[in-house]
């Protein structure tokens, strides 16, 4: 029904624009042209330079035939070129395809083929893997994408270094004048990026996200963190992971500084925090734990407040305590690739301030509530699709609804329909809700251990193990058991000093194992105790997430303990 508020009041060019984060860099480049924008070793670029270089990249890609909905693959680390790609490619309505640089050649080939990549921007470090991927494409009869070599100028020059493609990044940019502005998408529903989930069985799924969601989540980041103008952001989080949780665009919106870092190293992190005045950074729990470990050996003097975001199923309270001890204020977020990275946050309440550190850490370890611009996050019974009671005990599945949710899975309508069944995006994560409305992840549905009919949360056991002073990282998985069906099995990565100690004295390993068991007995019910404990380095993704699927394969041969 048409009313007086509709007649003659249709949206038009003057009062309605499609939302796209590509507009942020255009504003900062014009409003703050002389402000520092990118730091990478000796390289320093202002926002005017970043805007010009991003425009030049967009013009160069257009000259290569890239247009709307064409995929441009990014085989890059956290370098200035990766920052520029996040502005240029959306600014010409093409689609970013960030590649996990730690994957093998077959996986990269699958993503290039499935995503129909027309161009690949490739860091020289990964030429070998990419060459093998291209062989696979040729064997499949697929056309090869155009390769653009990215030679990181922060590395020592090597005249003998091999070349991959016929084109080189800086030469391409130099051939363009950068006069064509970056533009909004034709529609905010247009695809902005294609990101592949880390498949544990079969091939990974291609998550397609849109301009509207990226814009809104970039703004949500700013609101959530109360991020002021000109923040200094350190890239410990890989930009190829969920488009860096949309922070490339958040930093552009506030004309901040991107401090680039090719590889995560706690010594380098503390050095850059002090040297560049870093105010904000993000990372997985393993990154923060490595920093805590380094700080225990070499206490840093940061000299200024630092804010960190940590994401994961449930960062242990010991980690939050450790960071606060260094002087780093932690914001705990949670999300998935399908919801652009963080979409749930644990905001600290005023009443928590006077509480003891341990109790505040326990409250902060919950995932929390929905992001400001996400419509809804609920914990629902997957059978009835009704909210679970807010009793902190009843388990349901975390589900999302709103603009910060993917378009769907590329070329996979069945998986898309299943993911959106009942009008919600199904995360696969199991959680409870407390009376204050904050949710807490209990486990992935596939990670719950069912022992003798009892459901055991692997996360609960991991949280206890993280409190042992020798533990750097831990993962608990199910291990087959003749009587109980399955029981918990713990894989533990030790801190450096403890690794050296047990390497020098074989008897020390068994003594440490028994000490870990005693520690668990003090905090866990008997049926939850790990029946096997193995020490060693844990397999991880490039974003620091522990690959539990690999550990499940090892669990049958793990050393058992009589508890």
Itemize the secondary structure elements and their pairings.
Blueprint: H1 22-31, E1 36-40, E2 43-46, H2 47-63, E3 71-75, H3 80-88, E4 95-98, H4 105-114, E5 117-123, H5 127-139, E6 146-150, E7 167-168, H6 169-174, E8 191-196, E9 206-210, H7 211-225, E10 232-234, H8 242-245, H9 247-253, E11 257-259, H10 266-276, E12 280-283, H11 285-297, E13 306-311, H12 317-326, E14 328-336, E15 341-345, H13 357-364, E16 369-370, E17 376-380, E18 396-401, E19 408-409, H14 413-419, E20 425-433, E21 439-444, E22 449-451, E23 454-456, H15 458-466, E24 471-481, E25 485-494, H16 496-504, H17 506-523, E26 532-535, H18 548-554
Parallel strand pairs: 1-11, 3-4, 3-5, 5-6, 6-7, 10-11, 10-12, 12-13, 13-14, 25-26
Antiparallel strand pairs: 1-2, 8-9, 9-19, 14-15, 15-16, 17-18, 18-20, 20-21, 22-23, 24-25
Which characteristics define this entry?
9-stranded mixed sheet; 5-stranded parallel sheet; single chain; 563 residues; alpha/beta
Report on the architecture of this protein:
The chain is of the alpha/beta class and 563 residues long. It is built from 18 helices and 26 strands. The strands form 6 sheets. It has a 9-stranded mixed β-sheet, sandwiched between helices. A hairpin with a 4-residue loop joins strand 14 and strand 15. Helix 1 packs parallel to helix 9 and helix 2 crosses helix 3.
């Amino acid at each position: 029904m048409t009313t007086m508020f509709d007649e003659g009041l249709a949206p038009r060019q003057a009062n309605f624009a499609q939302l796209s984060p590509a507009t942020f860099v255009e504003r900062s480049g014009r409003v703050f042209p002389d402000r520092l924008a990118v730091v990478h070793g000796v390289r320093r670029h202002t926002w005017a330079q970043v805007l010009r270089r991003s425009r030049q990249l967009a013009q160069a890609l257009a000259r290569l035939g890239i247009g709307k909905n064409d995929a441009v693959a990014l085989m890059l680390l956290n370098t200035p070129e990766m920052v520029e790609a996040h502005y240029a490619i959306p600014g010409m309505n093409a689609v970013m395809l960030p590649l996990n640089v730690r994957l093998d050649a077959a996986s990269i080939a699958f993503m290039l083929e499935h995503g129909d990549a027309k161009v690949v921007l490739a860091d020289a470090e990964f030429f070998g893997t990419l060459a093998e991927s291209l062989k696979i494409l040729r064997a499949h009869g697929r056309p090869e994408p155009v390769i653009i070599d990215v030679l990181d100028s922060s590395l020592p020059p090597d005249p003998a270094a091999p070349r991959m493609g016929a084109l080189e990044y800086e030469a391409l940019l130099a051939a363009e004048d950068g006069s064509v502005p970056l533009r909004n998408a034709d529609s905010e529903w247009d695809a902005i990026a294609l990101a592949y989930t880390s498949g544990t069985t079969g091939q990974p799924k291609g998550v397609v996200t849109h301009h509207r969601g990226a814009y809104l989540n970039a703004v949500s980041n700013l609101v959530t963190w109360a991020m002021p103008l000109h923040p200094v952001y350190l890239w410990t989080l890989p930009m190829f992971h969920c488009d860096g949780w949309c922070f490339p665009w958040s930093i552009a919106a506030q004309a901040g500084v991107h401090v680039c870092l090719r590889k995560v190293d706690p010594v380098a992190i503390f050095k850059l925090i002090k040297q560049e005045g870093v105010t904000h950074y993000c990372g997985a729990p393993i990154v923060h734990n490595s920093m805590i470990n380094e700080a225990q050996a070499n206490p840093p003097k940061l000299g200024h407040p630092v804010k960190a975001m940590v994401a994961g199923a449930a960062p242990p309270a010991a980690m939050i305590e450790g960071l606060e001890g260094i002087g780093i204020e932690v914001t705990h977020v949670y999300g998935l690739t399908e919801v652009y990275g963080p979409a749930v946050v644990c905001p600290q309440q005023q009443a928590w301030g006077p509480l003891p550190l341990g109790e505040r850490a326990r409250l902060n370890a919950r995932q929390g509530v929905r992001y400001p611009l996400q419509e809804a996050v609920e914990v629902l019974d997957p059978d009835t699709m009704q909210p679970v009671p807010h009793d902190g005990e009843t388990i349901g599945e975390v589900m999302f609804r709103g603009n910060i949710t993917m378009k769907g899975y590329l070329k996979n309508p069945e998986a898309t329909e299943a993911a959106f069944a009942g009008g919600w995006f199904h995360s696969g994560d199991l959680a409870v809700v407390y009376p204050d409305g904050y949710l807490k992840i209990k486990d992935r549905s596939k990670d719950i251990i069912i022992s003798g009919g009892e459901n055991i949360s692997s996360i609960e056991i991991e949280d206890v193990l993280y409190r042992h002073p020798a533990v750097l990282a831990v993962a608990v998985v199910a291990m087959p058991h003749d009587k109980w069906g399955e029981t918990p099995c713990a894989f533990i990565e030790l801190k450096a000093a403890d690794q050296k100690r047990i390497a020098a004295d074989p008897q020390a390993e068994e003594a440490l194992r028994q000490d870990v068991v005693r520690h668990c007995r003090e905090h866990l019910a008997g049926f939850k105790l790990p029946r096997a404990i193995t020490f060693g380095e844990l397999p991880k993704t490039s974003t620091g997430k522990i690959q539990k699927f690999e550990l499940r394969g090892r669990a049958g041969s793990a050393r058992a303990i009589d508890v």
